[in-house]
Specification:
This protein has about 375 residues and is an alpha+beta fold. It is built from 7 helices and 19 strands. The strands form 4 sheets. It has a 6-stranded mixed beta sheet with strand order 10-11-12-9-3-13, with helices on both faces.
Length: about 375
């Protein structure tokens, strides 16, 4: 068996007494530092710092870079300006999802793609398979670390460690600053995240990541900043109805079925998967992603079957007891006929069918300020 991959920050984990690491897609990553509930609450109320350096980063340049990405992804790459990021999908011809990703426009014909860690090799191969002349692509994943500072006090914490030329609070949703001085290090500072809260992602050279982590933790100590792991990251994104690749999105689940049609610009096509997604939109998806609540004692888990009128109509994609709401909630991909709010359902848990119903999503939505991110999907 091959050894698990580790991020540049792995040596720092041992300084936290309660840290527990797991195998996450071939990476040895912390599921928690002090407890999922505590870390979840910290991000909702104060701030949390995540190591997400397992994510992949590709640089795409060349005179055909824009048209290449326009063909490979579902959103409209031509609409973004330098200093702006965009959430999008790469799809197969049948409309299934290769991956969901962020595209950062660094300059004209100069982009950074941020892809899911478990999909780095697959995404690279897919892009290379469709490569055209006039495009150059470089995988900089190993040289790049990624820290996510998330929560309502993230701006206040950053203000303590940014250089005089950087005002983090002035960075708008899905905008970024290159060569921003943070903790004495030049990095890319982006107002993006995956928690449903305000926050930032910091792309930094791998050999500088530990310094930035320690400086941020010190700066946020008096404001209640805590290190946070994958467990809280998952419950936070779940409450905000932010999809996870492999659960709400997959080669067999399209963006339209997942309720993410706003990131599929059919009027800016064609792109790979265009015809299938256009047909699906015109016909109406046969399945849709909805929120469900279990009304009896039981917690929904991925792949638990959902029933209505005595037949299975779909299954749970993600479910848990919401740390914020203390309700047993799930996301489920089900037959479109049963997706109206308050529709009665049944969920099978350990061989027993329990009462459930369709409920409104997102389960948690913070009070929006003018610069609040509308966040994209994980990047698992």
């Amino acid at each position: 068996m091959s050894a698990l991959l580790r991020t540049p920050l792995f040596p720092l984990y041992t300084q936290y007494e309660g840290v527990r690491c797991i195998d996450f897609g071939g990476w040895e990553l912390p599921v928690q530092f002090s407890g999922i509930q505590k870390e979840h609450e910290a991000v909702r109320e104060r701030a949390g710092l995540f190591d997400v350096s397992h994510m992949g980063e590709f640089i795409v340049t060349g005179e055909q870079a824009e048209s290449f990405l326009q063909n490979m992804t579902t959103n409209d790459v031509t609409a973004i300006m330098p200093g702006q990021a965009q959430y999008t999908f790469m799809c197969y011809p049948d409309g299934g999802v290769v991956d969901d990703l962020l595209i950062y426009k660094l300059a004209e014909q100069h982009y950074m793609l941020v892809v899911n860690a478990s999909n780095i090799d697959k995404d690279w191969a897919w892009l290379q398979e469709h490569m055209v002349p006039g495009v150059n692509m470089t995988n900089v994943s190993k040289q790049t670390a990624l820290l996510a500072l998330q929560g309502p006090l993230s701006v206040e914490i950053l203000a303590k460690v940014t250089g005089t030329g950087v005002d983090a609070d002035s960075i708008e949703t899905f905008r970024f600053v290159q060569n921003a001085e943070v903790c004495g290090v030049e990095l890319l500072l982006s107002r993006t995240g995956y928690t449903g809260e305000d926050g930032f992602e910091l792309y930094v050279a791998a050999d500088q990541a530990a310094h930035v982590w320690n400086e941020l933790m010190e700066a946020g100590a008096d404001l209640g900043l805590v290190p946070a792991g994958l467990g809280a990251r998952d419950t936070l994104r779940f409450e905000a109805k932010l999809p996870l690749y492999g659960q709400e999105l997959s080669p067999t689940i399209s963006p339209l079925e997942a309720g993410l049609g706003m990131f599929v610009k059919l009027n800016a096509g064609p792109f790979i998967g265009y015809e299938a997604l256009l047909q699906q939109k015109n016909d109406g998806p046969a399945r849709k992603l909805v929120g469900i609540e279990v009304l009896e004692r039981g917690i929904p888990r991925p792949h638990y079957p959902i029933y209505a009128d005595g037949v299975q109509i779909g299954e749970v994609t993600t479910g848990t007891q919401s740390p914020t709401l203390k309700r047993n909630l799930g996301l489920a991909l089900i037959d479109t006929k049963y997706t109206a709010l308050d529709t009665p359902l049944e969920i099978e848990i350990r061989g027993k069918k329990l009462k459930a119903q369709v409920v409104k999503t997102p389960f948690h939505k913070r009070t929006r300020a003018s610069k609040t991110p509308t966040q994209g999907a994980e990047q698992a």
